[in-house]
Structure prediction request, 262 residues.
Amino acid sequence: MAENRDETGRLAPPRANGTAWDRTGGNAPPRHIAIIMDGNGRWAAKRGLPRTAGHKAGAETFRKIATYCKDIGVKYLTVYAFSTENWKRSETEVSAIMALLKKYLLEAVDTMERDHIRLHFFGDMTPIAPELRRLARETDEITEHLSKDDFQANVCLNYGGRDEILRAARRFAADCAEGRQKPEDLDEAVFSGYLDSAGIPDPELIIRPSGEQRLSNFLLWQSAYAEFYYTDTLWPDFDEAELDRAIAAYQSRDRRFGGVKK
Ligand code: IPE
Ligand code: IPE
Ligand code: MG
Prediction:
C-alpha cells in the first residue's frame, strides 16, 4: 500500500486547499484512472494557434496530472496518447505528437528512477519509429528495476481496443497451435493475460475531457465496469481540481456490477 494512503486504504487529502472529494463515505478512491486526453486541437484553435501547440500544452497537462495522481496515491494512470485511427491526421501533426513523446521519454529516462515512476506502453509498437521504440525499451528496463508498488503510468501509443483484442487472440491461437494452451481453458482471466494490460487491474474511472462522450476505441475490454466522467474542459485546461471533481463523482456512484443493492 502506498504510504500516502491512510489506515483504511483511502487516499491522503489532495492539497491543503483541496476538499473536493469525500474521504468518509462512498466508494474507495480509484486505484486506476484512465484518461482520454482529448481537446488539444480545439484548445489551440481557440487561441489562433496551430494544432501542434495544443499537443504541446496537452503534454504539460499530462506531466501535471501524472504527478498529482502519484501524490494522492493513485496506483495506475492510463492515458490515451495516440490511437490506431490517429494516423489519418496530417504528417505534420503526427510527427509533432511523436516528437513530444520522444521528448517526454528522454526526460523520463533521466527522472523516473529518482521520482519512482514506472512507465509502460499499451499498443502495437511495430510501426513506431525505431528511435522512439528504443527509448520505450529503455524506459521498460528502468521500470523493471523499480518496485511494483511504485506509481505506474501506462501510455497508449498506436493503441486501439479492437487491435489489442485481436493481437491477444492471435497470440493465444499461436500458443494453442504450439500446444502451450488449450481452447477449452480460455476464460476471462487467461485472456486478460494476453492483453497489453496483463497484470494491471481494470480502471475504475475513465475520464474524457473536451465534451465528447464516446470511447473512440479506448480500453474496450477493460472498461466493462468502469465509471465514466465527462467534462467540457479541454485537456490542456484540465487541472488538479478537475481531477478532484472526477474522483468525487466516482466516489458517489452506486456500483452494482449487475447485482442488487442490499
Ligand atoms: C487529443 O486531442 C490528442 C490526440 C488525439 C492525439 P485532439 O487532437 O483530438 O483535439 P481535438 O479533439 O481536435 O480538439
Ligand atoms: C481519441 O481522441 C484518441 C486520443 C485522445 C489519443 P480522438 O480525437 O482521436 O477521437 P475522435 O476522433 O473524436 O473519436
Ligand atoms: Mg479529438
Remarks:
- The chain has a mean pLDDT of 93.
- The two ends are 29 Å apart (CA to CA).
- The pocket of IPE (ligand 2) is lined by residues 36-38, 80-83, 86, 212, 214, 216 (CB under 6 Å).
